[in-house]
Amino acid sequence: KVGPGSVIGPNSRLENAVVGAGCVIDATYLLGATLEADVQIGPFCRVRPGSHLSAGVRIGNFVEVKNARVGPGTKSAHLTYIGDADVGARVNFGCGVCIANYDGIHKHRTVIGDDCFIGCNTNLVAPVTLGDGAYTAAGSTVTEDVPPDALCIARSRQTNLPDRAKEHQKHPRK
């Protein structure tokens, strides 16, 4: 089903999908997904079964959504995986965010509250919950719950080892 005023661009494929009014879909694959009104998605996205994108969601290039509920006004501009998650309203995903939902045996859910900011290159290792208004610093690997309005910095300090690159430079490249 496609709602009134929606535009389905070239190279898009929809199967068992519901698209609300006023959506714009560009070079995207939707399978078993629901988009509410005014969703903009693409290009080069994949929205897999069980996904529900609420009104006003913006999903950019090279984003995959799988079995996730995404709240109104949430944005993910590029290069992100949102799998097995419950995402609140007005969340911003930075570039390169990955929800690590599979431990090799079981799939786990991630819960992200309203008004969260997920910094670039953040890994959210499920199961994990981010409270409303939580922020993650770029490059963080989050393995524990983040309280509401907290800033999570979960990365090692940078270490520079002087002259260590010279060891690698001595070896010819193949």
What features would you describe in this structure?
The chain has one helix at residues 165-169, and strands at 7-8, 13-15, 18-19, 24-25, 28-31, 34-35, 40-41, 45-47, 52-53, 58-66, 69-70, 75-83, 85-87, 92-93, 98-100, 110-112, 117-118, 123-125, 128-130, 135-136, 141-142, 151-152. The chain is mostly beta strands.
Distance between the termini: 54 Å
The ordered string of helix (H) and strand (E) elements is EEEEEEEEEEEEEEEEEEEEEEH
What is the tally of helical segments?
Answer: 1
Task: Give the fraction of residues assigned to helices.
Answer: under 10%
Rough outline: globular
Number of strands: 22
Unreliable runs: none
The average pLDDT is 96
Structural class: mainly beta
Indicate the proportion of strand residues.
Answer: 35-45%
Topology, element by element:
Elements: E1 7-8, E2 13-15, E3 18-19, E4 24-25, E5 28-31, E6 34-35, E7 40-41, E8 45-47, E9 52-53, E10 58-66, E11 69-70, E12 75-83, E13 85-87, E14 92-93, E15 98-100, E16 110-112, E17 117-118, E18 123-125, E19 128-130, E20 135-136, E21 141-142, E22 151-152, H1 165-169
Parallel strand pairs: 1-4, 2-5, 3-6, 4-7, 5-8, 6-9, 7-10, 8-10, 9-11, 10-12, 11-13, 12-14, 13-16, 14-17, 15-18, 16-19, 17-20, 18-21, 20-22
